[in-house]
Amino acid sequence: MFKLSPKEDKFFELFSQSTEIITKSLKRLYGIMQQECVSSEDAAQMHRFENEADNVTTQILERLNCTFITPLDREDIYELAQVLDDIVDFAEGTVERMLLYRTGKPSLGAQELVHLVELAAEQIQQAFSYLGNLHSKKSNILAAAEEIYHLESAGDKLYREEVARLFEYEKDPIEIIKWKEILEHIEATLDHCESIADLLKSVVLKYD
């Protein structure tokens, strides 16, 4: 049904760029979680990802302001751009906290929680790759959304188990405070991925 002009199609190209940055940043975050400690260069790299994401979001919003006919409703494009940008902010925030708090190597549970976020980011990238063919790829988008829900549910369970483990085995109250906040931030990132899945589903149903 969609026969996009090059100008309209640019929105989907920019969404693709945005989701690519998201998957890169989460892949890097997963790598950082397996290190003995976080370096200032790790934080700087995440900040560069955040700047890249901001730049793409700005391009989407600027194009939205000067495009008369858009392939999706203007409010949908605006909201999709904003929620994508927020994921990289979350990833950067996790690394910033680890650097500021001078944490050591994360537990296996914390690493696995980030891995679930990484997998959710990959599903988001998949789903957005289908937006330009919304009607023919509806089932693919909904399937990606469902997988994100499964990952978020698994993450909730893992988060609770990891916090319980932290209180049971960690004797230093300062370390408990540090890691509880970091775990909460990672879990919030996964919650945000679920919010993106909700938004994608609403967009798909709107144009059904």
Strand segment tally? 0
Series of secondary-structure elements, N-terminal to C-terminal: HHHHHH
Which residues sit in consecutive blocks of at least 5 with pLDDT less than 50? 1-6
Largest sheet: none
N-to-C span: 11 Å
Instruction: Bin the strand percentage.
Output: under 5%
pLDDT average, as an integer? 93
Helical content band: over 70%
Number of helices: 6
Class inferred from helices and paired strands = mainly alpha
Features of the shown structure:
208 residues; globular; single chain; mainly alpha; disordered N terminus
Q: What does this 3D model show about the protein?
A:
This protein has 208 residues and is mostly helical. The chain has six helices and no strands. The protein has helices spanning 6-32, 40-66, 74-100, 108-129, 138-169, 173-206. The chain is globular, with a radius of gyration of 18 Å. The model is unreliable at 1-6 (pLDDT under 50).
Give the helix/strand layout.
Blueprint: H1 6-32, H2 40-66, H3 74-100, H4 108-129, H5 138-169, H6 173-206
Helix pairs in contact: 1-2, 1-3, 1-4, 2-3, 3-6, 4-5, 4-6, 5-6
What is the gist of this entry?
The protein is mainly alpha-helical and about 210 residues long. Helix content is about 80%, strand content about 0%.
